Amino acid sequence: MSDSAQQGNPEPHGTPQAEGRTLDTMGSGGRKALGNPATRGRTTIADGVVEKIAGLAARDVLGVHAMGTGLSRTFGAVRDRVPGGGRSVARGVKAEVGEVQTALDLDIVVEYGVSIVEVARAVRENVIAAVERMTGLEVVEVNVAVGDVKLPDEDDDDDREQRVQ
């Protein structure tokens, strides 16, 4: 301990000493303020989390019939029928997630008769709003690929009766 501290004088940096510990001069109950809690650690968001959020947001748009390419929808229909397989909400969505930004690629099937341009615009807007609101990440791009059109007279994989019950 310095001579000035032994004599009861403040240390050169201006914080009074008592029993070897720094006294609180900010009135925070004996604890030194550590700053903004948001800066005390790191949050990481997995690609799959962003993909699920984007998939649900895209499916909410009127005119989107399904998500995914023909092959992924076929495998998904089989997986949906397997007990415990469940429906993948991230089907048709690929995300690249960085520390502060994300980019998304979506494969969609639209209903016949809707404006594809308007559906794609609405999908982008809905996905960007949902992902940015829920994750805090900046969405730098949303690429929408329309891989098919659902015609009114086509059977839907989800509407078919199961062959085995």
Automatic annotation (TrEMBL):
PANTHER family: ALKALINE SHOCK PROTEIN 23, HYPOTHETICAL CYTOSOLIC PROTEIN-RELATED. This is Putative stress-like protein. The lineage of its organism: Bacteria, Bacillati, Actinomycetota, Actinomycetes, Kitasatosporales. It comes from Actinacidiphila reveromycinica. Belongs to the asp23 family. It holds the Pfam family Asp23. Residues 1-40 are annotated as: Disordered.
